[in-house]
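Suppose you are handed only two things: the residues of a chain and a line of SMILES describing S-adenosylmethionine. What would the bound structure be? This form records exactly that question and the answer produced for it, so the two can be stored side by side and reused later without any lookup.

QUESTION INPUTS
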Amino acid sequence: MNDMYFQARRAPRAVDAALARDVRDGLGATQKTLPSKWFYDDEGSRLFQRIMTLPEYYMTRTEHGILKHKADRLADWIAPDGRALDLIELGSGDGEKTLSLCETLLRREIACTYHPIDVSQHALSELAARFSGALPALDVRPILGDYFDDWPATSPLRRQVALLLGGNLGNLTFDQSVALLDRIRARLAQGDVLLLGLDLKKDPAMILAAYDDAQGVTAAFNLNLLRRLNRELDMDFDLAQFAHFPTYSPLDGAARSFLVSRRRQTVRSSVLGCAFAFQKGETIYTEQSQKYSFDMIVQLAAASGFAVASHVTDDLGWYTVAVLQAIEQRR
Ligand SMILES: C[S@@+](CC[C@H](N)C(=O)[O-])C[C@H]1O[C@@H](n2cnc3c(N)ncnc32)[C@H](O)[C@@H]1O
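ANSWER OUTPUT
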């Protein structure tokens, strides 16, 4: 691989401070909450890789199928004129899905630099190994950091194509989503493109099953968040005293995961210097995964300076890779 390097934008201490703040605020709130980005320590990333292969978890293979079998349609949108590209992937994970798209761009002889951004060192190391093995000619520049803060330096002569796949946007509320899309839009020039992978509304039973697999891997993933807090903030969560609880509401299209306290208990952190009391049955809200209608995607795009140019969906219409084009900013 040419020019492979890691840009560590954030010192480990700063990540610890952000985690400490999120945990103090989140577990101190009336509805206890922990942001889903903290799932992805090395063990969390490994568990998520297993989740993506589970029979119930249709999202990954459906989106992967779109990127693999419809890569030429996507390439027509992102590289219509042979201009050089900066491909900037927010929350890239191990990059498995993006590989086919990069292969297609190289086959079309598009000059392309791939900038995957992820908070997980483990995921970026896997990505680096995958790309150097499969596409040694591609210029890959991983960035270890938070995609809310970090963006690569790019040239105005190249088209920027941002990718937000894996339903990552679905972890945010509508307002948070518009705020993130706004920030992405601010980095792009008119005509640049954002590829947005989004899960579509469908049979509620199928959606709920995706977060409640028979092997219990999703439960282990959810509980691993507490193990991380035990290790990094010296907390004393007893994992056996919390249960994974997934829900899906067709009313608002949100799948939400919780951890439920099995008994009345108090959890302490020597790092934070405080304790958190749990009633029996009290919940920690750990993740939202939004499911979308096409109307909702148009609303999101319109609210953040994009227009929906196309929907590239799988043949069953379960999932879309929406092609959003940056339109003129009226502010
Ligand atoms: C659901 S996985 C999706 C991975 C990949 N995009 C895919 O579709 O297979 C989410 C990824 O985003 C990363 N992530 C989550 N929040 C992030 C943030 N705020 N900044 C950077 N990476 C983040 C996680 O580490 C994880 O690798």
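WHAT STANDS OUT: Residues 37, 40, 48, 91-93, 97, 117-120, 123, 146-148, 165-166, 168 surround S-adenosylmethionine (CB under 6 Å). Residues 31-44+204-290 form one domain.
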